[in-house]
């Protein structure tokens, strides 16, 4: 029974429907490193171990405290005193025996001192609750090694994530609301021929009411163009007139009343969709204009060879258009008419894909490489995306800080941006005092004053003329660097999914700073 | 305002229960609380802050209330349920009940992390409770391997808060109706201590939502029925004679071919209109799915349709919704915050939150509004307007198809000549048969009068809904 699923297929069924077998394979080949097995970190790993990541390695030099056990599901009361990396690895490992769990009982600073290349082996490094200085050091090593880095933090009722990756390519972005690719504004020859084969006026009634709306619109567009100097309906008035034209096309019975022809109703409803211009979207144009697309070398990643091949296609066989997508939405029609229409699009898509393949081949040959992947059928040219996230050193640099972004967000003093500034401020506090503010009750009052000084010096250092309300300074002292489990759990889910996007190259990751406000239950993404 | 209400009702309830129950406290010492255990939580309960509610008093008692007195009910021990139980346990809640009527399936294991391969086939509620109780000392989760409908008001009334991680709109509506039925009105004024907040969460792939409902005060589930996307049902004529998609082929095999080839229908029995005997299609039986798969392939081949796969077949037959651990983690992560607003003493800006991480991460909150004439919570008598010549069938269709009602299998009764008469009931075969002829009769023929009250029962609500029949000309 070859069709009966293996146990793994069954186990992962619900997620395979989202990222497919090829996405799962990418996950199973990945090795993720977690620095610090605090609750935020183990929650992230839980959400990676459950879907079957290949392997994980936890780096943590801390000993488990009573506090740790209180908020971390992957520690038990007899973990107290043990190394935190080891204790959490055991309980995470038993979630899924397909996954290989490892740990290193070491402080990340020590590793960076003695063996920075340790981190080069990973598909992705995730660091949680990490002090600023270590974070920047690690960020630098990973940037130079082109290893993606995801920083995650739970600080009181605030969650924070920062993605650091030079270039992340997305082959399948799976957009939620993609426009259809019907080419009705510029039908390709096979489509035109197919449309011509229909004689709407002389069809049998049954055929007439079961002709796909795409054909109907195409036919009437031909009629319209003949009468309007070959111009398609452009504005609301003309589209309304076109709809009226379609309405008049509905067959009438002996009494002159229009019959019920649902396919015509569909055609009228879809006029706007039909008239969407078939042009190359901006995000793809940007890809075409990128330097990596222009200069194909033997080092070029497959993604850029593909982009270049698509660009070549657009300039040659495509005559300004992308390869045809090949899918059409369902529509009222009899089986034959729908399938034959679908096949027209499908076959054209295959032809176009073959043409793109030939361009890929010729580029690879030109740089002396062999084509090794055969997954062209899975991509969709309009949905290719690339994400570039700035290095941490640029975010932190006085000359390279995104001053405008910060200042304009702070026009609203309660914007999530203020939470980012507070996080940076508590890091300053830590640098000065080797602790976070307000950890113990007796510290809270005095630390409010100290933290306020940190805020001022931060703003001054970066030349940011913004107002940080005292309330936020007070609030961040109140937090006392606590890591409430529910916020850690939220961030665990959010970060894990971003990690999966990075590993599978499906769906689009955030760029580059995400802030979650658990008080107000709001969030925002900034590019810093 | 919502914040004032939520907070004050919580405190009233807390005090009332503390007064009533002297010795409900769990012996904290025996649970082995260790040093620093609750430190992450305590900072929020014992320290004041600039954004907390003006009535919030930081106190060590609140933690004790959580640990010793507060009773929470979690409905569903699946993707959301497992996450909720963990979050609640690690936030200090100790008295937790969990209800789930399902047993564990292999396909649950990619996200329902309280279960292992060895647990497949066992009741979710029980395995989940055991896991939490052993991992989180002092936490006492009580499992109920039952349907929510098997409990009555006396069960639900004992809880301070109810949190739902359900996968069915019908079940949500039933729960909603149950909590509405617990409300007490003194001289037309709602007694706040009879309100049990309902926190409801749902996920689907990379999308999720979480909402807070204060029965009787804020929008209930039925107030916003239109927010739930309708289930996709293909038209029968498409399935029967004009398939275009692989899904149509699968539905053909499921709906039309399976009953035909898996029921034994002696023709004499058919003539006598006796019930048919047969094997129901079981989506969890791989052999059944395999059969449907093969038939779908044949059907597809007939019409040159490509795309029928085993995975698609299973998905269509079982109405599978894709699911991952991460989305459940995110939504469950918002829920304790939403209910802890009274405890952390913050107030969410709005009662309805949506989340989507297909492209970056997106959250949005808005205030769902009560519907003035909501059939569940408004106490406004529902109207049915039909001409006396309308058939009962039309009334039935209205009850099921109207967007605000969306009943599943309504049973209609009326008081005629002083007696309670069932006009139509679907859920019991013998009564269905007996009352079926009424569907073709007009309202006048059935003896119904203008202004008459009709009582309608349905799975979507524990209480009968009263409708007033108005005759139109």
From TrEMBL, chain A:
Pathway: Protein modification; protein neddylation. Keywords: Ubl conjugation pathway. GO terms for molecular function: NEDD8 activating enzyme activity. One of its GO terms (cellular component) is cytoplasm. One of its GO terms (biological process) is protein neddylation. It holds the Pfam family ThiF. It comes from the Eukaryota. Residues 12-522 form the THIF-type NAD/FAD binding fold domain. Belongs to the ubiquitin-activating E1 family. ULA1 subfamily. Regulatory subunit of the dimeric UBA3-NAE1 E1 enzyme. E1 activates NEDD8 by first adenylating its C-terminal glycine residue with ATP, thereafter linking this residue to the side chain of the catalytic cysteine, yielding a NEDD8-UBA3 thioester and free AMP. E1 finally transfers NEDD8 to the catalytic cysteine of UBE2M. This is NEDD8-activating enzyme E1 regulatory subunit. It comes from Electrophorus electricus.
TrEMBL record, chain B:
The keyword Nucleotide-binding applies. It comes from the Eukaryota. Coiled coil: none annotated. InterPro entries: E2-binding, ThiF/MoeB/HesA, ThiF_NAD_FAD-bd, Ub_act_enz_dom_a_sf, Uba3_N, Ubiquitin-activating_enz, UBQ-activ_enz_E1_Cys_AS. Its EC number is 6.2.1.64. Keywords: ATP-binding, Ligase, Nucleotide-binding, Ubl conjugation pathway. Transmembrane segments: none annotated. One of its GO terms (biological process) is protein neddylation. The keyword DNA damage does not apply. Pathway: Protein modification; protein neddylation. PANTHER family: NEDD8-ACTIVATING ENZYME E1 CATALYTIC SUBUNIT, UBIQUITIN-ACTIVATING ENZYME E1. Belongs to the ubiquitin-activating E1 family. UBA3 subfamily. This is NEDD8-activating enzyme E1 catalytic subunit. It comes from Electrophorus electricus.
């Amino acid at each position: 029974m070859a069709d009966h699923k293996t146990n793994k297929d069954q186990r992962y069924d619900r997620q395979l429907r989202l990222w497919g077998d090829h996405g799962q394979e990418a996950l199973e080949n990945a090795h993720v490193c977690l620095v610090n097995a605090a609750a935020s970190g183990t929650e992230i790993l839980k959400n990676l171990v459950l879907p079957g990541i290949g392997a994980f390695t936890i780096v943590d030099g801390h000993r488990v405290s009573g506090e740790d056990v209180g908020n971390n599901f992957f520690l038990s009361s007899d973990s107290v005193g043990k190394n935190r990396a080891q204790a959490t690895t055991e309980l995470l490992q038993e979630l899924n025996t397909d996954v290989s769990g490892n740990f290193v009982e070491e402080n990340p600073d020590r590793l960076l001192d003695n063996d920075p290349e340790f981190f080069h082996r990973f598909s992705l490094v995730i660091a949680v609750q990490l002090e600023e200085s270590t974070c920047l050091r690690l960020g630098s090593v990973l940037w130079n090694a082109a290893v993606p880095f995801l920083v995650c933090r739970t600080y009181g009722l605030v969650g924070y994530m920062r993605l650091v990756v030079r270039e992340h390519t997305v082959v399948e972005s799976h957009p939620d609301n993609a426009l259809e690719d019907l080419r009705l504004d510029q039908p390709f020859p096979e489509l035109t021929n197919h449309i011509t084969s229909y004689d709407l006026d002389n069809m049998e009634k049954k055929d007439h009411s079961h002709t796909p709306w795409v054909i109907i619109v195409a036919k009437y567009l031909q009629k319209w163009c003949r009468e309007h100097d070959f111009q398609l309906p452009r504005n609301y008035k003309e589209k309304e007139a076109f709809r009226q034209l379609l309405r008049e096309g509905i067959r009438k019975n002996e009494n002159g009343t229009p019959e019920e022809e649902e396919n015509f109703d569909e055609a009228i409803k879809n006029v706007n969709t039909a008239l969407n211009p078939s042009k190359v979207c901006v995000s793809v144009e940007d890809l075409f204009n990128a330097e990596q697309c222009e200069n194909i070398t033997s080092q070029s990643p497959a993604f850029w060879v593909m982009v270049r091949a698509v660009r070549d296609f657009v300039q040659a066989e495509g005559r300004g258009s992308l390869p045809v997508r090949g899918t059409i939405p369902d529509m009222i029609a009899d089986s034959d008419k729908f399938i034959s229409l679908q096949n027209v699009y499908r076959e054209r898509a295959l032809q176009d894909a073959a043409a793109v393949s030939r361009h890929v081949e010729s580029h690879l040959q030109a740089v002396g490489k062999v084509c090794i992947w055969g997954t062209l059928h899975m991509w969709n040219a309009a949905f290719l995306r690339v994400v570039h996230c700035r290095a941490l050193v640029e975010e932190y640099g006085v000359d390279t800080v995104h001053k405008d972004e910060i200042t304009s967000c702070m026009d609203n003093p309660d914007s999530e941006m203020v939470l980012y500034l507070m996080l940076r401020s508590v890091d300053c506090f830590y640098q000065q005092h080797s602790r976070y503010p307000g950890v113990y009750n007796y510290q809270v009052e005095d630390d409010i004053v100290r933290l306020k000084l940190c805020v001022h010096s931060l703003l001054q250092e970066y030349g940011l003329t913004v107002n940080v309300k005292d309330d936020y300074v007070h609030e961040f002292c109140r937090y006392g660097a606590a890591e409430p489990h529910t916020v850690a759990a939220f961030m665990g889910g959010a970060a894990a999914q971003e990690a999966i996007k990075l590993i599978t190259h499906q769906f689009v990751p955030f760029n580059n700073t995400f802030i979650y406000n658990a008080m107000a239950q709001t969030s925002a993404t900034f590019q810093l | 305002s919502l914040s004032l209400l939520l907070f004050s009702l919580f405190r009233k309830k807390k005090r009332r229960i503390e007064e009533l129950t002297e010795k409900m406290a769990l012996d904290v010492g025996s649970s082995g609380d260790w040093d620093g255990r609750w430190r992450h939580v305590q900072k929020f309960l014992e320290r004041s802050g600039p954004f907390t509610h003006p009535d919030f008093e930081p106190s060590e008692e609140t933690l004790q209330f959580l640990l010793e007195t507060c009773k929470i009910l979690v409905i569903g021990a699946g993707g959301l349920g497992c996450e909720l139980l963990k979050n609640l346990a690690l936030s200090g809640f100790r008295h937790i009940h969990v209800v789930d009527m399902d047993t564990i399936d292999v396909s649950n294991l990619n996200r329902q992390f309280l279960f292992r391969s060895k647990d497949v086939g066992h009741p979710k509620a029980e395995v989940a409770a055991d896991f939490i109780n052993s991992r989180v000392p002092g936490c006492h989760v009580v499992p109920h391997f039952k349907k929510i409908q098997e409990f009555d008001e006396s069960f639900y009334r004992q809880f301070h808060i109810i949190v739902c991680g359900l996968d069915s709109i019908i079940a949500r509506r039933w729960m909603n109706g149950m909590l509405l039925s617990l409300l007490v009105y003194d001289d037309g004024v709602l007694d706040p201590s009879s309100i049990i907040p309902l926190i409801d969460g749902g996920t689907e792939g990379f999308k999720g939502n979480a909402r807070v409902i204060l029965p009787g005060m804020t929008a209930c589930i039925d107030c916003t029925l239109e927010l739930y996307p309708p289930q996709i049902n293909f038209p029968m004529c498409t399935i029967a004679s004009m398939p275009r998609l692989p899904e149509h082929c699968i539905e053909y095999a499921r709906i039309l071919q399976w009953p035909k080839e898996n029921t034994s229908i002696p023709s004499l029995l058919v003539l006598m209109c006796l019930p048919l005997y047969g094997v129901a299609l079981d989506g969890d039986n791989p052999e059944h799915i395999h059969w449907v798969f093969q038939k779908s392939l044949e059907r597809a081949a007939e019409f040159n349709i490509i795309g029928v796969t085993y995975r698609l077949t299973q998905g269509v037959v079982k109405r599978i919704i894709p699911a991952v651990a991460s989305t459940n983690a995110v939504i469950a992560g918002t829920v304790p915050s939403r209910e802890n607003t009274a405890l952390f003493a913050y107030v969410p800006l709005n009662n309805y939150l949506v989340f989507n991480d297909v492209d970056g991460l997106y959250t949005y909150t808005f205030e769902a509004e009560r519907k003035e004439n909501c059939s569940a919570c408004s106490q406004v008598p529902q109207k049915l307007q039909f001409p006396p010549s309308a058939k009962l069938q039309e009334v039935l269709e209205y009850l099921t198809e109207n967007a605000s009602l969306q009943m599943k299998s309504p049973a209609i009764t009326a008081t005629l000549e002083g007696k309670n008469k069932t006009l139509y009931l679907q859920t019991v075969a013998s009564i269905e048969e007996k009352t079926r002829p009424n569907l073709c009769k007009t309202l006048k023929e059935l003896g119904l009068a203008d202004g008459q009250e009709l009582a309608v029962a349905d799975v979507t609500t524990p209480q009968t809904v009263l409708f007033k029949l108005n005759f139109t000309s």
